[in-house]
Design brief:
By secondary structure, the chain is α+β, with helices and mostly antiparallel strands. The chain is built from 2 helices and 10 strands, in the order αβββββββββαβ. The longest helix is centred in the first third of the chain and has 34 residues.
Length: 249
Amino acid sequence: MYNLLRQKKSQLIGWAVGLMLLIASQQVNAQLRDALNLPDHDDKKYYLGIGLIYNNARFQVSQHPSFLSNDSVMVVEPENVGGFGLAGIHTLRLSNRFEIRAIFPQLLFAYKNLTYHIKYPDASKNEQAIMTKRVESILLGLPVHVKFRSDRIGNFRVYMFGGGKFEYDLASNSTARKAEDLVKLKKYDFGVEAGIGFNFYFPVFILSPEIKVSNGLSDIHSRDKNLKFSSAIDKLNSRMIVFSLIFEG
């Protein structure tokens, strides 16, 4: 009888402990649910954002075949230069893993330098042996990306993306007439982009720092064989590394 009562007592204690653990686990899950910021955001089909952008841009230079016969310009070197921009973000959710994102309007102020080594500088034009030409662009762009998202871990998520872009240069000087010392650029460019980003969920918004590589595929150089600083160059392709801080809600 004593052993029987002891076994029943042990069973009751086991059931009680199991019930307490079940209740505790439910409370923990509820607390974790309450600790999630914007828990219903992932159910949205469409949402907006704003991006603050820093870009580091340069040219990919291809020398013209006549470069070796040029008796003035010896070397043309591209240099990286920083710029900034703003963007509107439009995101359409396809599934738990995939989204389509269109960035419009995207306005980038981009600067690219070309350093020339001149064999015979023209003193009457204030030329020097080494001269740097800054090419300024105001790019109105439309990048479109496909995003692949990881699982959400608390208030954090990682995503990768890739896609294409189309850009129109509002500051294009391809039609300039007095362009003796200019490097002319075409108005249109298109290219490919890829990058990685991180979602940090806050109580009222999502902060997403991301970095991407943006490469132009078209030749944006409007070559003029009669211009000293243009004739030595055959093709110019844009290269850019872009860091963005995106605020979404």
